[in-house]
Amino acid sequence: MVGLMQLHFHLIRLSMCLALGGCQSIHTTYAPAKPASFVHQVERDPLIIHSDFLLPSEHRLIEELISQRGVLSEKLKLTPTNEPIHVYLFSDDKAYHDYVNQRFPNFANRRAIFVETDISLSVYAHWGDHVAVDLRHEVSHGYLHSAIPNLPFWLDEGLAEYFEVARGQHGVNQPHLDYLAAKADLEGWKPDISRLEQLPAAETMTQEDYAEAWAWVHFLLESGDKAAILTDYLNDLRQGDDAGTLSTRISKRLAVPELALAEHLQSLR
Ligand SMILES: [Zn+2]
Known about the structure:
By secondary structure, the chain is of the alpha/beta class. It has two domains: 4-147, Glutaredoxin (3-Layer(aba) Sandwich); 163-268, no CATH class. The chain has helices at 60-76, 93-103, 131-147, 153-163, 174-187, 193-197, 207-222, 227-238, 246-253, 257-268, and strands at 13-17, 23-27, 40-44, 47-51, 85-90, 112-116, 121-126. The chain has a seven-stranded mixed beta sheet with strand order 2-1-6-7-5-4-3. Helix 1 (60-76) links the parallel strand 4 and strand 5 (85-90). Mean pLDDT is 88; it is low at 1-22.
């Protein structure tokens, strides 16, 4: 049994999905061992899917996750990598939560987790009503992390929230849109990208933060000709350049970015 003392939260990134699909990231050197009950394995480059139940290699969800690498790479103008992503699928939620409780007790309530070490990318999830959203989200983290070093955590989550949406919906994450609409109507919420960029750690991200992170990504990718602001920024990050902040680049293109985002969200309602 692996104890909490073996966790070193500084080299591995761990992402956990919240009920609404939001995630939280921490860093640790700890990589959990493969669950003993996982006797089944499907290899579909770059995914290696381990499970405690028989999963057909041609399952529709696997096909979707494989093709998502191309979708994400094309949308973000990234060169796909072949770095393997291990996906550990539990047949039921109890087995999954028992496993996560034991190894990551601080994140026992998460529906799925993404773990990054210096040498591996792994996703843990269970087969249930939300498995498609969860896997699209977490595997997107894997594709992003394999292509871009040092992706700002808030943007990492915003991108995953965009790519978790089923194909054909143009990245419209309806729960986030509804949340921000209600927040704007009831509390006068206004976007503030600088606030996101100044968040101290992924663990501090709230539902509002995830929703706004998604909103900025959707705004850049799905409204007019702004996508290059984001894709150029990601390309600079990929090359290890000092990319600065995304808000600085947006401000060079738009006089009042927050107002433009608010109008974009209004147009989606
Ligand atoms: Zn996430």
